[in-house]
Design brief:
231 residues, six-stranded antiparallel beta sheet, 4 helices, Immunity protein 35 domain-containing protein
């Protein structure tokens, strides 16, 4: 699976959601903003310093006015008070509408207008650290290697000399699943289709189909030496 170079900007996907009849709520709009944010080349650098963002710290969208321009954006850093962002202090936000791929903005206290718009509940506890994820990956692969049925089904579709290597995490609201992708829809390129149906083999050895298109978050944890957030 190829990975888009971080120094190669892509056109902002927000345009895909313009005039979308399914955007019936502010919550849906916020989820689409998150899709654009996850694809931004500065996503990790901008969000990692805010420990727990998107998990223990819910995603929050604010409306703002800066230098005569009005917009909305996701809060990525600032000051928190009583479990909420302190909107009277400086904030850094991500505006998915600004520029080709969205932009990060500093909103200055006492200068720029800002007010709360909507909050999306977090995904609950964060992922385990990488050593634990590697153990889960190893356990899932071991379960596949011990199952003649799963191996026969895989080899029938994929051919000899191959083995599953893609280990992902998907979230449906606060429900989270991690597993080895062993079957599912594929794109013409041969890559897994993360807008389709996939079968995951959990570290405990249980294989289960999932409708990935309906997931609120999809992240490739391991695929060879690559990892990336899909949405």
């Amino acid at each position: 699976m190829t990975q888009t170079p971080v120094n190669q900007p892509q056109k902002c996907r927000r345009a895909e959601f313009d005039e979308d009849p399914l955007l019936s709520s502010a919550g849906e709009s916020l989820r689409n903003d998150l899709t654009v944010l996850h694809e931004h080349p500065e996503f990790f650098a901008r969000t990692v310093p805010t420990s727990g963002l998107g998990y223990e710290i819910p995603w929050t969208c604010v409306a703002y006015q800066q230098d005569g321009r009005k917009g909305t954006g996701l809060v990525v850093s600032g000051t928190r008070c009583d479990g909420k962002w302190d909107l009277s202090q400086d904030l850094v936000i991500f505006d998915a509408w600004l520029g080709e791929i969205g932009s990060f903005l500093m909103l200055r206290a006492g200068k720029d207008m800002v007010e709360h718009s909507v909050t999306l509940p977090g995904f609950g506890p964060r992922q385990p650290k990488k050593p634990e994820l590697l153990r889960e990956y190893a356990h899932a692969l071991e379960a596949w290697m011990k199952s003649p049925r799963l191996q026969d089904e895989w080899l029938e579709r994929m051919g000899k000399g191959t083995a599953p290597t893609t280990f992902i995490e998907i979230c449906f609201g606060t429900d989270r699943y991690r597993g080895l992708v062993i079957d599912g829809d594929r794109l013409p390129s041969g890559e897994w289709d993360y807008d389709g149906d996939l079968v995951l083999l959990s570290p405990s050895g249980h294989d289960r189909p999932h409708n990935i298109w309906n997931a609120s978050k999809v992240e490739i944890l391991f695929d060879g030496d690559q990892s990336r957030v899909i949405r």
